[in-house]
Amino acid sequence: MNTPNSANHPANSSADTPATPSVNTSDTTAGSSAAAPAAAPVSPETQAALASTAHAPNSPGATHIRSFVHRRGHITQGQLAALERLMGEWSIPYAPRRLDPAAAFGRQAPTVLEIGFGMGETTEKIALARPDDNFLGVEVFNAGVGSLLRRIEDSKIQNLRIIQHDAVEVVRDMIAPDSLAGVHVYFPDPWPKKRHHKRRLLQPAFVSLLASRIAPGGYIHCATDWEDYAVQMLEVLSGEPLLANTADGYAPRPDYRPLTKFETRGLRLGHGVWDLIFKRVA
Ligand SMILES: C[S@@+](CC[C@H](N)C(=O)[O-])C[C@H]1O[C@@H](n2cnc3c(N)ncnc32)[C@H](O)[C@@H]1O
C-alpha cells in the first residue's frame, strides 16, 4: 500500500527489478512540509546503514524466506535528516535478546506491535489516539523509518518506539512469550504473483510464532485490500489453535484503525478492504 516505491515494487506489482536508491531534496511524505537542508550531514553510521545491502537475500543459512526485498530505495532529505537526528532517541536496535518494554518505553503499559508501518501515517494516528498503550513499530525501509521519526517529532509522540529490522527476527528473538496486548499488520505486501506467495508475511509458521507472543486475551488485527490474501489470512488465522476469531469471518473496521488515503480512494472505486481480528485464547 503506502510503501516507498510502491508502484514499481515487486511485492505490489509484476515488476521484478530492484529500485535504484536515490535521495530526493523535496519532502512531502512526512507530516511536516518544512524544507530540509539541501545537504543534510550524514554520519558514518547512517551512511553505512543506507549503503548496506539493498536486498535481503535468503542466504543458505537463513531460517526463513524474507517478506521484503529492498531495505532502501528513494529517500528524501527530510527523512534522511530524521534518521540521522532522531534514530538514537526513538529507535531500539535489533539484538538477539529479549526486550524489556518497561525499560524501552519508560513505563509499564500494554504493548502493541505493528509490523510493516510503511510511512507511519496510520501508526502516528493510532499512537496519538491511544496514549495509554505503548506502540512498537517494526519496519525495514529507511524512508519509512525516517518518515515515522519525523512524525514522532512533529506530533510529540511519547508512546512509540521503532525497530528497523526484519519483523520475523524481532518477534522470534526480542518479544517474550505471552507478552503483547496486540499485533497490527496493516496491508502487508501482497506479493501477487503465485511464485512469490511464499514471501507473504502471514504464513502458518509466523502466525503461530506471533500467537505465542500475544498475551491471553490480547488480539491480532490484520487488514488487506487483496482478496486472495484476505482468504489466505482467514484460513491461516483460523487454523492457529491459540487464536479465536472475534467475528463471523471478516470483521468490521474498528474505529481505532483510520482509513488511509489510498484506502479511501480504493473504496470509492469499489475495491474491497478486509479486516480480520482474532483474540489469543488462554
Ligand atoms: C504494503 S506496505 C504497507 C505499509 C502500511 N502498513 C500501510 O498500511 O500503508 C508493507 C510494509 O511492510 C514492510 N515489511 C515487509 N516485510 C517486513 C518484515 N519482515 N519486517 C518489517 N517490515 C516489513 C515493507 O517494508 C512495507 O513498508
TrEMBL record:
Query: Which EC class heads this enzyme's classification?
Result: transferase
Q: Where is the composition biased (Polar residues)?
A: 1-29
Which superkingdom is the protein from? Answer: Bacteria
Q: Which InterPro entries match?
A: SAM-dependent_MTases_sf, tRNA_(Gua-N-7)_MeTrfase_Trmb, tRNA_methyltr_TrmB_bact
Q: List positions binding S-adenosyl-L-methionine.
A: E114, E139, D166, D189
According to its UniProt record, in which pathway does this protein act?
tRNA modification; N(7)-methylguanine-tRNA biosynthesis
Q: Which GO terms describe its molecular function?
A: tRNA (guanine(46)-N7)-methyltransferase activity
Binding sites annotated in the UniProt record for substrate: K193, D225, T260, K261, F262, E263
Please give the CDD domains that the UniProt record associates with this protein.
Answer: AdoMet_MTases
Catalysed reactions listed for this entry: guanosine(46) in tRNA + S-adenosyl-L-methionine = N(7)-methylguanosine(46) in tRNA + S-adenosyl-L-homocysteine
| Keywords linked to the UniProt accession | Methyltransferase, S-adenosyl-L-methionine, Transferase, tRNA processing
Q: Segment Disordered: which positions?
A: 1-63
Does Nucleus show up as a keyword for this record? no
Instruction: State where composition is biased (Low complexity).
Output: 30-44
Q: Which GO terms describe its cellular component?
A: tRNA methyltransferase complex
Give the EC number(s) under which this enzyme is classified. 2.1.1.33
**Pfam families recorded for this chain?**
Methyltransf_4
Q: What does this protein do?
A: Catalyzes the formation of N(7)-methylguanine at position 46 (m7G46) in tRNA.
The entry sums up its family as follows: Belongs to the class I-like SAM-binding methyltransferase superfamily. TrmB family.
Report the HAMAP family cross-referenced here.
Answer: tRNA_methyltr_TrmB (MF_01057)
Q: What is this protein called?
A: tRNA (guanine-N(7)-)-methyltransferase
Specify the species: Achromobacter kerstersii
Question: What are the top taxonomic ranks of the organism?
Answer: Bacteria, Pseudomonadati, Pseudomonadota, Betaproteobacteria, Burkholderiales
